[in-house]
């Protein structure tokens, strides 16, 4: 297995980087079935990362029935399913309790926000009409200026408007 050593000089410091052309993580997958088999097995769980609470949150059967009522789900499930759901809910509440107990540093004003706080002007009829009037065809998309005139298909029209005579008269009779 050839190893390449690259020495980098950065001012007063010297760094060595090692690299290998052969993967050292594991064997290469030969078929899609091997890859599927690898991903079908769970190799770790978040449960191993969390310690159990000293006082776990207990979910009673009555609480589960109320939750099922509020969610509109059927309460006609087996006792095994109920106990599995209560255990899962208890673990989820333990996790949420751990999140609430995490000590956070003081707020820093230089943190970025997820929401862009640049104000955008509200869309008005006038701004919409102005943008329509200023729209130009995009030649790269194959748009050609003045290539389609919807009034050319109408049998009767006046200036830029369609004339409709028959439809309204038939409904009123």
TrEMBL record:
<protein>
    <submittedName>
        <fullName>Glutamyl-tRNA(Gln) amidotransferase subunit F</fullName>
    </submittedName>
</protein>
<dbReference type="Pfam" id="PF20977">
    <property type="entry name" value="GatF"/>
</dbReference>
């Amino acid at each position: 297995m050839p190893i390449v050593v690259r020495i980098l000089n950065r001012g007063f410091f010297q760094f060595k980087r090692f690299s290998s052309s052969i993967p050292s993580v594991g064997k290469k997958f030969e078929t899609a079935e091997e890859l599927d088999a690898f991903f079908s097995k769970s190799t770790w769980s978040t449960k191993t990362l969390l310690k159990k609470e000293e006082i776990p949150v207990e979910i009673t059967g009555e609480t589960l029935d109320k939750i099922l009522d509020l969610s509109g789900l059927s309460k006609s499930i087996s006792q095994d399913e109920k106990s599995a759901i209560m255990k899962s809910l208890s673990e989820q509440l333990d996790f949420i309790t751990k999140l609430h107990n995490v000590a956070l540093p003081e707020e820093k004003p230089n943190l970025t926000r997820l929401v862009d706080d640049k104000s955008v002007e509200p869309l008005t009829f006038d701004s919409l009409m102005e943008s329509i009037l200023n729209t130009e065809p995009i030649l790269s998309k194959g748009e050609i200026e003045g290539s389609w005139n919807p009034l050319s298909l109408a049998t009767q029209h006046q200036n830029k408007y369609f004339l409709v005579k028959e439809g309204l008269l038939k409904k009123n009779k």
